[in-house]
Design brief:
The protein is mainly beta and 137 residues long. It contains two helices and eight strands. The strands form two sheets. Strands 3, 4, 6, 7 and 8 form a five-stranded antiparallel beta sheet that branches.
């Protein structure tokens, strides 16, 4: 037991270390050897330099700097700052901008964007960008 305490790998937590000692103390032939499990998390990078422009009545053009190695972008827009009842639009990874139509004129529009990466059919999302505001023409 003292031998295991001094030579246990540093990445083991206390509970894993205890489990490891319990497995080595057993004299049962049917036990499996100890294995290490690696858990990886997937989190795509955020978008940078998001710009909003409303030059046509009822429309807002959203532009951003493209991010490498993402599957696409998700854009949310709403008429309220807390993003309640927000609508979502998806854009492909090759897109640099998107135009949102049918917005109320002379009102503020709140917009945020995030990236996603699809791996084996599951989407992994980045954090939302800060909410940006534009006044619709």
């Amino acid at each position: 037991s003292e031998f295991l305490d001094s030579y246990a790998p540093s990445f083991l937590t206390t509970s894993e270390h205890t489990d490891k000692k319990d497995n080595t103390d057993k004299k049962d032939d049917n036990t499996l050897p100890d294995t290490n499990v690696t858990i990886t998390t997937v989190k795509p990078r955020n978008t940078a330099k998001v710009t909003l422009k409303s030059s046509v009545k009822g429309k807002v053009k959203i532009s951003w700097k493209p991010v490498k190695s993402v599957s696409g972008y998700q854009i949310q827009y709403s008429s309220s700052a807390n993003m309640k009842k927000a609508k979502s639009v998806n854009a492909k990874s090759s897109a640099k901008n998107i135009t949102v139509k049918k917005l109320s004129s002379k009102k503020k529009c709140y917009i945020r964007i995030r990236t996603y990466k699809t791996i084996k059919g599951k989407k992994y999302y980045s954090d939302w960008s800060k909410v940006k505001t534009v006044k619709v023409r």
